[in-house]
Every structure is written in C-alpha cells, then in structure tokens.
Amino acid sequence: MKITVIGAGNVGATTAFRLAEKQLARELVLLDVVEGIPQGKALDMYESGPVGLFDTKVTGSNDYADTANSDIVVITAGLPRKPGMSREDLLMMNAGIVREVTRRIMEHSKNPIIVVVSNPLDIMTFVAWKQSGLPKERVIGMAGVLDSARFRSFIAMELGVSMQDVTACVLGGHGDAMVPVVKYTTVAGIPIADLIPADRIAELVERTRTGGAEIVNYLKQGSAFYAPAASVVEMVESIVLDRKRVLTCAVSLDGEYGIDGTFVGVPVKLGKNGVEQVYEIKLDQSDLDLLQKSAVIVDDNCKMLEAPFT
Ligand SMILES: NC(=O)C1=CN([C@@H]2O[C@H](COP(=O)(O)OP(=O)(O)OC[C@H]3O[C@@H](n4cnc5c(N)ncnc54)[C@H](O)[C@@H]3O)[C@@H](O)[C@H]2O)C=CC1
Ligand SMILES: O=C([O-])CC(=O)C(=O)O
C-alpha cells in the first residue's frame, strides 16, 4: 500500500504522521511545492519510528514522480482561511491549486482513490473528480466525519459522557449551511432530544455549523488541523483495511435525496473500492429542505468555476 499526501502544511503533515503511526501504508510520500518542508517533516516523522514503534517508509518530495503508483492520494494543498473569511472565499485560489495537483497526480498514478480536504471542500472534491477522470466512487471529500466529530464532542461535553457513546449525523455541504440531523444523533442509542432541552440542542447545532470558524478565530493564522487529520485517517483506514465503515463523506449524488450530480456529505460505506454504497436515509421534510438548499449552494459555486478540465 502506497499513500501520498499532497500539501505538507498543518493538515497534510498531521495526517501523514497519524497514517505512519498507524502503519496504514508501507510507503508514505509527503509532497509540497515548497522545497525542504516535506523532506524535513518526513524525515522527522521517520526518525520518530524507533520510539513510536512503526516502520512505515516516510519520504518527502517536491517531485510527482515520487508519487508514482499511489493507491490513495490525500489532497490538502491550498490556502486555509483567516478570521472573517468564509471557506468560499478560497474558491478561486484553491480551485487552481487542486486542479493542477490532480493533473500531476494522474500523470503518475493510474487508478488511485483520492480523498480531498482542501476548501471549499465539496467544490474542491468536484474539481478533483472532474480533473482526474476517475469514477465518482474514487473521489471522496472529507468533511462529514469532522463535522460529526465536532457535534459529538459538544454533546459529550454537555452531558459529561464519553464521546465514544455519542454518534452524530451531520449532512450537507461543509459550510454554514451544513445539516446536523438531530433525529439521528444519539447517546448509546438514546436520541439527544430525550437528554438535552431543545433550545440547548439548537445552540450545539449552531456551534457545530460554525465549528471551523471557532478554531480559525482562536488561531488567527490558519484553521483546524488535529480533528481534520484524525477524520481523514478514519476514512483512509476504512479504505485500506476494507472495513466498510459507514461515514459521512462528500460524494457525487445520483438522484439520492433529490440531488443529482452535486458533491455533498451523506452517509456512505467506505471500503477498498472507495464509496461502495450511498445511504439514502429518511429525513424530515425540514432537514431534506436544508440538505437540498446546501447542495444548491455547492452547485452555484461549481458553476462559477470555468472549464475546461484537461
Ligand atoms: N475539509 C475540511 O474539513 C478541512 C479543510 N481544510 C483545508 O485544507 C487546506 C489545507 O489546510 P492547512 O494544512 O491548514 O494549510 P497550510 O497552509 O498549513 O498547508 C497547505 C500546504 O499546501 C501547500 N501547497 C500550496 N499549493 C500547493 C501546490 N500547488 N502543490 C502542493 N502543495 C501546495 C502549501 O505549501 C502548504 O504547505 C485548506 O484549504 C483548508 O481550508 C482544513 C481543515 C479541515
Ligand atoms: O474552518 C476552516 O476553514 C477549516 C475547516 O474546514 C474546518 O475546520 O472545518
């Protein structure tokens, strides 16, 4: 198994380190445009192996030839936002980067599974899919796992219970219009509506929607990376080990939820072939409306991008 992580910044490097520690690949390549950074970080990670008890071969590079025959490629290249910015403010800049990165990846790997992280997430996943020419099952955006993790952690904090027992469902685009679905959010199977007053749930939902901005406002210079990296690794692990985890990921829908051809977050089964099943769960009309509205926002942004994809 060979995994490449493009972008050796906060998310990319943290992801690579977690992947190495979990030994999810024999070979792990960290690539960036900046010379020295991926080499230095990769060597530093590799040197932690004797103490961290892993022996994944981690290398850093600025040359796509070193990514040849990757089974999985994680794209984290691109600018992060600063306080006051929306993720959509990154659209034009990051679309160019993701398009170019994808083009270069595909020159050296025939049939990789691509996990996209760069923002605005759903639109960048569309860009990577279009540019790659890969089947839609092999281009997957990471956001729902992170958004659900944030909702889960806020609920655990609220109730003073283990996060392990909290499951949450957050659908839709990775923006302020994301859709935390309260009905499918439980603590050991108990709906949170039975445990937390409605007005407080509404506050936790709002905190989840603005969870990314909350971190940006603290950090000032960039955005979250520990929880995002952990979320990427959960997806990659399910693919590498063919675990068939059911995780919310940004995938291209084919009429499910009345949405056609747009990438948005829905529950999917992730295995060795990428997206192996899309689940169309029963939603209340109000949640379905919100999901469709969030897909329209993604769609409108995709339309702002100019073709051609070559
Ligand atoms: N989907 C999600 O839930 C999340 C998405 N993000 C997004 O991930 C992206 C990366 O975030 P960070 O790692 O915090 O940013 P960062 O600034 O720490 O790292 C980005 C890296 O990309 C590199 N890069 C830029 N252009 C490149 C190119 N053409 N080829 C290769 N590398 C290139 C930069 O040199 C830099 O090292 C941002 O767009 C951010 O908004 C971040 C957190 C969560
Ligand atoms: O907020 C950001 O810009 C980064 C991100 O997507 C997140 O942390 O959810």
TrEMBL record:
Pfam families per the UniProt record, alphabetical: Ldh_1_C, Ldh_1_N
GO biological process, any: tricarboxylic acid cycle
Domain of life: Bacteria
Positions of substrate binding: 81, 87, 119, 150
Record's keyword terms, sorted: NAD, Oxidoreductase, Tricarboxylic acid cycle
Keyword hit for Phosphoprotein: no
InterPro entries linked: L-lactate/malate_DH (IPR001557), Lactate/malate_DH_C (IPR022383), Lactate/malate_DH_N (IPR001236), Lactate_DH/Glyco_Ohase_4_C (IPR015955), Malate_DH_type3 (IPR011275), NAD(P)-bd_dom_sf (IPR036291)
Enzyme Commission code: 1.1.1.37
Catalytic activity line of the entry: (S)-malate + NAD(+) = oxaloacetate + NADH + H(+)
Active site: 174 (proton acceptor)
Binding-site list for NAD(+): 7-12, 32, 94, 117-119
UniProt domain Lactate/malate dehydrogenase N-terminal: residue ranges: 1-141
Single Gene Ontology MF annotation: L-malate dehydrogenase (NAD+) activity
Domain Lactate/malate dehydrogenase C-terminal positions: 146-299
Quaternary organization: Homotetramer; arranged as a dimer of dimers.
NCBIfam families xrefs: MalateDH_bact, PRK06223.1
Family: Belongs to the LDH/MDH superfamily. MDH type 3 family.
Function as written in the Swiss-Prot or TrEMBL entry: Catalyzes the reversible oxidation of malate to oxaloacetate.
Protein name, per record: Malate dehydrogenase
Organism annotation: Chlorobaculum limnaeum
Gene behind this protein: mdh
